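Thread: Newbie trying to understand structure tokens

Hi all, I'm a second-year student working on a class project, and my supervisor (Dr. K.) asked me to get a predicted structure for one chain before our next meeting. I've only ever worked with sequences, so writing a 3D structure as a token string is new to me. If someone could post the tokens and maybe explain what I'm looking at, I'd be very grateful. Here's the chain:
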Amino acid sequence: MVVGLGNPDKKFENTRHNCGWAAIDHIAEKRGCRVNKIRFKSFTGECLVGEKTALLMKPTTYMNNSGQAVVEAMNFYKLPPENVIVIFDDISLPVGKMRIRQKGSDGGQKGMRSIIYLSGRDDYPRIKIGIGAKPNPEWDLADWVLSRFGKDELKILAQLFDNVNEALELMTDGKIDRAMNLYN
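---
Reply by user tm_fold:
Sure, no problem. This is what the structure looks like when written as tokens:
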């Protein structure tokens, strides 16, 4: 299962906080599948990632309640956390950078916090996508993560999403260390 975190509603399109959704859209397009079925409080679609069929998910529970959708799907398919890859935004990374981790804390990301809290586990492989730090310390964090990417940033992200797509092949094949070496 590959989950991209974000928020539903048009007003959140192309915002920094929705880069998980944007990554899923990019992956689906590259793999020739559609993420348009509504299941598990999410938009879902199935596609091949390497030799395996993967469920692509975009939870519609809003970022802070992402765990509701993810845990529901995990329970249905009886998936352990190590078979669920979560893609989400990270303000500690510059735009255009990604970081793959095998497990860990939520790092302050509330969607990941919801998943960890509701499942009771933190051993989810994850891909963090850099959205850049607040340009001014006085900015409200919510305003920053809900701000839109600029045109130049969107071009950089499109290239990064190609790397995310390629890293998924390795991760679903159990080669997370190799993915980290190539893409971190």
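A couple of things are worth pointing out once you decode it. Residues 16 and 99 are 16 Å apart (CA to CA). The first strand starts at residue 2 and ends at 4. Feel free to ask follow-ups in this thread.
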